[in-house]
Amino acid sequence: MILNKDTAKKTAELLLQIKAIKLNPSEPFQWASGWKSPIYCDNRVTLSYPPVRVFLKEEIAKIVELEYGKPDVIAGVATGAIAIGVLVAQELGIPFVYVRPEPKKHGRKNQIEGHLESGQNVVVVEDLISTGNSSLNAVAALKEANAVVKGMVAIFSYGFDIATKNFEDNNVSLKTLSNYENLLEQALDSNYVTQKELATLQEWRANPSEWNQ
Hints:
The chain is α/β, with parallel strands linked by helices. The chain has helices at 5-17, 50-68, 82-92, 133-144, 161-169, 180-189, 195-206, and strands spanning 21-23, 29-30, 36-37, 39-41, 73-77, 96-99, 112-113, 121-129, 148-157, 174-179. The protein has one domain (5-206): Rossmann fold (3-Layer(aba) Sandwich). It has 7 helices and 10 strands. Helix 2 packs across helix 3 (82-92). 38% of the residues are buried.
């Protein structure tokens, strides 16, 4: 769920401008999952552009406070959301931790890195939501540590039905700065794509696992 249409369009515009999101309907990308896709999103690119990362930091921090109140801790999901999570925590003046996909095999075998106390209110920051599985894995680890997870804020979501269902099933609130619908609208308005390419992108979004097989 996005909260502000202007923010959603501005976020999409910035991600396209710096090529954090690449659209290439004629030569699809292959995701790690094996899916073929006309879109590839790497929000870590935003860190190389100070005005963009400042915009994202400030907008995420606003949503955190507006929707969940000021939490005790911000948690970033490793590895993509560690840096943006630190920036948001700094903006809010609160502690930061990050959550690994699984516990380390050595040392203290931590899955959560940083200082987190039982019962603390936490908001999770993510860079990208696809199916939501890795994000919700982080939420589960935080709950296992007796944190109170108030919700999650992400930069961008593909808006897949499976992600919506996963978040609903786990009773986790998700807010995003922008999403696929706003991206396509901005891409067309800015002439990043043609009407024909837009149709391809919409077709993929309807059935990503079977598209272009």
